[in-house]
Design brief:
about 170 residues; alpha/beta; Rossmann fold; six-stranded parallel sheet; 6 helices; about 45% helix
C-alpha cells in the first residue's frame, strides 16, 4: 500500500519551483526587473540595495522604474556598481517625476520616458510602465505590502507571462 501526503504541492507550483531552481543554477546573465513600494521600512531599504548591488556585480542587467522607495534604492545601488547595467522606465516624462528623484534619474544612462502618458492618472501610467518593464525582463523581484494593488497586479501579469516572480512583503 502506497501512502500519499496530503501536503503535496499543486503541479503548477512544482513547475514554478523547478523554473526558479533552474534560474538559480543558471550562470547566464539575466534581465531582472525589481519593482516595489514607494514607502519602505529603513531596514528593508538596505536589503533592496544589497540585492540590487549583488545582482549588478554578478553581471545581470537590472530594470526598474523611477519612483522613490524600492526603485530609488535599486537605482542608487546599480549606479554605484555599473551604470550601464541599469535601465529605468518612467511612467511619464522626467518633468512629471518628483523633484527629489529627478537629480538621481538624470544620472541614469538608459532612461526611457513616456511623455505620451503625462495626461493619464499616475496609477494607470504606473501600471502600463510596470507591464512594459515586465515584458523586457526574464525575472521579476517585487517588494510590496499586501495592499499594494498595482504591484500585486504586476506580479500576476508577470506570472501569466511565464516570468519567474519573487514577491516579498514588508508587512
Amino acid at each position: 500500500m502506497v501512502t500519499r501526503s496530503l501536503d503535496l504541492p499543486a503541479l503548477d507550483r512544482i513547475d514554478t519551483l523547478a523554473q526558479e531552481l533552474a534560474l538559480l543554477q543558471d550562470r547566464g546573465k539575466r534581465r531582472i526587473a525589481i519593482l516595489g513600494s514607494r514607502h519602505v521600512p529603513v531596514v528593508s531599504v538596505h536589503l533592496v540595495e544589497l540585492v540590487a548591488r549583488s545582482l549588478a556585480q554578478e553581471g545581470h542587467s537590472l530594470i526598474t522604474s523611477g519612483a522613490l522607495g524600492v526603485n530609488s534604492a535599486v537605482i542608487r545601488s546599480v549606479l554605484d556598481v555599473d551604470p550601464a547595467r541599469l535601465t529605468v522606465l518612467l511612467p511619464q516624462s522626467l518633468d512629471r517625476q518628483p523633484s527629489e528623484s529627478r537629480e538621481q534619474l538624470e544620472r541614469v544612462l538608459n532612461l526611457v520616458e513616456k511623455p505620451e502618458h503625462d495626461e493619464l492618472p499616475l496609477p494607470m501610467a504606473s501600471s502600463l510602465c510596470n507591464q512594459e518593464i515586465i515584458s523586457r525582463c526574464d525575472q521579476l523581484i517585487c517588494y510590496a505590502f499586501h495592499d499594494s494593488e498595482t504591484l500585486l497586479a504586476s506580479c500576476r501579469i508577470a506570472e501569466d507571462m511565464g516570468k519567474v516572480v519573487s514577491l516579498m512583503f514588508f508587512d
